[in-house]
Amino acid sequence: WPRAEERTRQRRGGGVAERSGRLQQTADAAGAPTTESQQTEIRAMSIAHHLQLNTDKIRGAKVALLPGDPFRVQNIAKHLEDASELAHVREFMSYLGTIEGDPVLVVSTGCGGPSVSICVEELAQIGVDTFIRVGSTGAIQDYIDVSDVVISNAAVRLDGASKSFAPIEYPAVS
């Protein structure tokens, strides 16, 4: 897999441009320029294949809560207002609800970096820009108990998937 910036460069040559960190189509299949309204329509029609979601289904949600286990999605969604299931395909279960009137997604990522990568990339393609991982974690500190809430500000990046999003030199500490 090429790194994210390499994929972006490759896509730029094929009628796709980067704007505000997101990719958008700027030409149709024949190479003719598209208007902003046509681009909006293209995004609305495109489906996040693995998640079976699109911009219409997510109703402008910009925030996604991401548990790993699909069986946790419903438990989290019941704390949202007007929550309803959107899709359930393999490890990806999704609900949409609101918090104080703002749409919020809850989408399971499955297990492992590649599955999380698929989920996050597809959500970003349909307009989500804030991802909050919720779930269990491991700890090596004696003072952290099993029932403690942990808010991480760093990560050990000994995986393969994160290299597709940022170079290994990029700090994993906020």
How would you describe the overall organization of this protein?
With 174 residues, this protein is of the alpha/beta class. The protein is 25% helix and 22% strand. A five-stranded mixed β-sheet has the order 4-5-6-3-7. Strands 1-2 form a two-stranded antiparallel ribbon. Residues 1-25 have low confidence and may be disordered.
Give the N-terminus to C-terminus distance in angstroms: 26 Å
**Mean of residue pLDDT?**
80
Shape: globular
Strand order in space, largest sheet: 4-5-6-3-7
**Biggest beta sheet summary:** 5 strands, mixed
Low-confidence stretches: 1-25
Strand content: 15-25%
* Class by SSE composition: alpha/beta
Key attributes of the depicted protein:
174 residues; single chain; 7 strands; globular
Quick take:
The chain is an alpha/beta fold and 174 residues long. It has helices spanning 4-12, 36-45, 55-58, 70-77, 113-125, and strands at 16-19, 22-25, 63-66, 81-89, 92-99, 102-107, 130-133.
List the helices and strands and how they pair.
Layout: H1 4-12, E1 16-19, E2 22-25, H2 36-45, H3 55-58, E3 63-66, H4 70-77, E4 81-89, E5 92-99, E6 102-107, H5 113-125, E7 130-133
Parallel strand pairs: 3-6, 3-7
Antiparallel strand pairs: 1-2, 4-5, 5-6
